[in-house]
């Protein structure tokens, strides 16, 4: 989940796995797989960066859990 800001200033969490596309129509329009959409204050680059950071954190947690000390 990533934290985004609606145009009215309201913050919300978005499941990035359900994003179909991001349209840049001067503001950013995040279109979901079910065709709902959100107009957000963040730029497309900021959204992509947030998704990449979240995925990196998930992978680090997974790697830490799967490392087994076999001494």
Describe the structure.
- This protein has 71 residues and is an alpha+beta fold.
- It has one helix at residues 44-66, and strands at 2-5, 11-14, 19-25, 27-32, 37-40.
- The chain has a three-stranded antiparallel sheet, with no helix packed on it. It has a two-stranded antiparallel ribbon with strand order 1-2.
- The chain is elongated and about 55 Å long.
- The termini are far apart.
Low-confidence stretches: none
Helicity level: 25-40%
Structural class of the secondary elements? alpha+beta
Output the number of helix runs.
1
Provide the spatial order of strands within the biggest beta sheet.
3-4-5
Q: How many strands?
A: 5
* C-alpha geometry: elongated
Radius of gyration: 16 Å
Strand and helix order: EEEEEH
Task: Report how far the terminal alpha carbons are from each other.
Answer: 37 Å
SSE diagram, text form:
Blueprint: E1 2-5, E2 11-14, E3 19-25, E4 27-32, E5 37-40, H1 44-66
Antiparallel strand pairs: 1-2, 3-4, 4-5
Key features?
alpha+beta, 3-stranded antiparallel beta sheet, two-stranded antiparallel ribbon, 1 helix, 71 residues, single chain
Summarize the structure.
The protein contains 1 helix and 5 strands; from the N terminus they run E-E-E-E-E-H. The protein has one helix spanning 44-66, and strands at 2-5, 11-14, 19-25, 27-32, 37-40.
């Amino acid at each position: 989940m990533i934290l985004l800001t609606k145009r009215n200033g309201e913050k919300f969490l978005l499941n990035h796995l359900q994003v179909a596309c991001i349209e840049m129509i001067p503001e950013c329009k995040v279109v979901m797989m079910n065709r709902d959409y959100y107009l957000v204050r963040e730029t497309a680059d900021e959204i992509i960066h947030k998704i990449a950071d979240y995925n990196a954190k998930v992978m680090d947690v997974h790697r830490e859990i799967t490392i087994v000390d076999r001494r």
